[in-house]
Amino acid sequence: MVKEPRPGRVKTRLGKSMGMVPAAWWFRRQVAGLLRRIDDARWDTVLAVSPDHEGMQSRVWPAHLPRIPQGPGDLGDRMGRVFRTLAPGPVVIVGADIPGITRAHIARAFKALGDHDAVFGPAPDGGYWLIGLKRIRPVPVQLFEGVRWSTEHALSDTRATLGDCSIALIDTLQDIDTAEDLAKLTE
Fold it and tell me: Could you give the 3-state DSSP secondary structure of residue 76?
């Protein structure tokens, strides 16, 4: 899931402390590195882009990667659409603002879906950097309903929307929302 790296439209909480242009530049470089790190023949990488029209035609992202529009709504609406749109089978969605993601993390997530209906990669702030669904049965209708996004409740709220699905947790990784988060990377 990626947004066009335009100042004032991406990483705005980070931009409040470092400036909107440096925050957008950081995000663009971060995503480029992420895409290089996770490229692997074991899975297909698809970019869910926002805003839809601009993202589908963007020259910022690698041209060889297929793209789908995220569409309107909050984060849950957009992730739910990805899960419901792609061809049947396991799907893993990762955040683009996670510097620590490697191929090994993605492989662990897909492996966990062998024995579980869903998988999460928790973040230290109570959110998550990865969500995956096996998608053997229909995606739960209530998925993401009532999730308090950008709070310490995001992971627990999302888990609650999965009903009786079996859930696995993989590695905890830091996402970058603020300058303090970015400073933790250099500690």
Answer: helix
Q: Where are the domains of the chain?
A: 2-184
**Is residue 146 classed exposed, middle or buried when 0-12, 13-18 and 19+ CB atoms within 10 A define those classes?**
exposed
The two tokens of residue 123 are 């973040």
Q: What is the pTM of this model?
A: 0.95
Summarised one tens digit per residue, pLDDT across range 147-156 is: 999 999 999 9
Within 8 A by CB and 6+ apart from 36, the residues are none
Q: What is the pLDDT of residues 57-111, one digit of tens each?
A: 999 999 999 999 999 999 999 999 999 999 999 999 999 999 999 999 999 999 9
Number of H helices, E strands in the chain: 7, 7
Contact of 129 with 94, CB cutoff 8 Å: yes
Cα–Cα nearest to 130, from 89, 163, 97, 152: 97
DSSP 7: T
40-54 tens-digit pLDDT: 999 999 999 999 999
Find tokens 């993989």 and name the residue.
Answer: 170
**CATH architecture under which domain 2-184 falls:** Alpha-Beta Complex (3.90)
Where are the strands (E) in 14-172, listed by range? Answer: 47-50, 67-69, 91-94, 118-122, 128-133, 167-169
Burial-class residue 9 by CB neighbours within 10 Å (0-12, 13-18, 19+). Answer: middle
